[in-house]
Write a structure and sequence with these properties.
mainly beta, 4-stranded antiparallel sheet, about 40% strand
Length: about 70
């Protein structure tokens, strides 16, 4: 495409209430190194993983915030 980057956002809101004394929540972003155009706004392009210690709390889809044409 004509753009060298695309902005991503989470597909849905996410809330987590930590229990007192719980392990810190860590995040891991999984995105491909490259995407091939066209990419349409709302296309799933990766995921955000949230962990409490070694326990996976949630995998949240990441979507393109804008379209990228050829």
């Amino acid at each position: 495409g004509k753009q060298s980057t695309v902005t991503v956002t989470n597909a849905a809101g996410y809330r987590y209430v930590a229990k007192k004394g719980a392990s810190p929540v860590t995040k891991e972003v999984r995105l491909p190194r490259y995407l091939a155009a066209p990419v349409r706004k709302g296309d799933a392009v990766g995921s955000l993983l949230l962990y409490e210690g070694d326990t996976l709390l949630s995998e949240i889809p990441l979507v393109a915030e804008e379209s990228v044409l050829l």
